[in-house]
Design brief:
Largest sheet: 2 strands, parallel
Radius of gyration: 17 Å
Structural class: mainly alpha
Oligomer: single chain
Number of domains: 1
Helix content: over 70%
Strand content: under 5%
Order of helices and strands: EHHHEHH
Length: 121
């Protein structure tokens, strides 16, 4: 019986850049989980229920990751909508006007660096 540690991937190579990509996704998930109280504080019940649905979507994507034998684009698509909404709520809570713009610029630069493989680790 061959034991396989890790998981195979159809969408990214398992090298340093792939691990950085997976690490960023898990960091975003952790940020969203720890910001749960700020999402639901002083919100109506209907909004809290919708926020809870987003967290259930994240949980179902994580469960599907461990049930499946390989990581595919479907797993990332299951995470993209709830994480995008929840992380944008984090950016809206920042009081400074320039700081969210700098974060957005940094994300765009990171996307270009990863897409065009400018920085090879």
């Amino acid at each position: 019986v061959k034991v396989k540690f890790g998981f195979s991937s159809d969408i990214m190579p398992i090298d340093t850049n792939g691990y950085i990509f997976i690490g960023l996704i898990f960091i975003f998930i952790i940020i969203a989980i720890f910001s749960y109280n700020s999402y639901s504080m002083k919100k109506r019940i209907q909004v809290q229920k919708k926020i809870n649905i987003l967290f259930w979507m994240i949980l179902s994507a994580l469960i599907a990751l461990f049930i499946s034998d390989s990581l595919s684009i479907d797993h990332l698509l299951m995470l993209s909508a709830p994480l995008g909404i929840l992380l944008s709520m984090n950016l809206l809570k920042i009081k400074s006007a320039i700081f969210p713009e700098l974060i957005h610029l940094g994300i765009i630069i990171l996307i270009f660096v990863l897409h065009f493989e400018i920085l090879i680790l």
